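Appendix C reproduces, verbatim, an entry submitted by the partner laboratory led by Prof. M.T., so that reviewers can inspect both the input and the predicted structure.
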Amino acid sequence: MADRITKAEQYERTRRALLDAARELFAEQGYANTSTEEIVSRARSKVTRGAVYYHFRDKAGLFEAVYNEEQQNFLQFIAGRVQDADAERDLWQRLVVTTCYAFVERAADPHTQRILHIDGPAVLGRTTATKTGPGLKLARQMFEALVSVGLLKPLSLDPLISLLWALFFEAGVYIANAADTAAAQKDMLATMLEILDGLRVEPRADMTEEAGI
């Protein structure tokens, strides 16, 4: 006898099925070329078109949910690379350089390109697409750590993080729309590192000792 599932479990299963199907289709053929009927068909035979509007308002709402998940996966990828970075490297190398390398690597992924940096600005609007609470939180943690050991010039963090977040987003758009992805990655990485290096100052010996570096 099959186990009974609760309404809450059924709700989550249906929502998950729609999100997974939509991500695949949006990545494969783009937002404009994907219909709600296709999403429902790929999701599961028992999922109806009405489920899209029950769970997500409309196709744009479903795309926004897919976008947010893709953005979260992107950030987790970068955070994982930073966490795995060689502890012997200095803090700037571990945080800034590792983040830049991880960013341009993930930005070349076709699914990420289509959802985050091609369709994202077009569907959600550029202002909405560039705003992400988790991303700004991650950036703030990184730069607060650099400030704590004297590696960052004395600048106000709020405008700095806002500008740098926009820089990273536009870097992703540039790579996603480039005819030669590999060349775009290489050029963008060099440019990002050069810009960010201008924010760096040499740490004082006493501060680095206190931080255990």
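DSSP finds eleven helices and no strands in the chain. Additional entries are available on request from the coordinating office.
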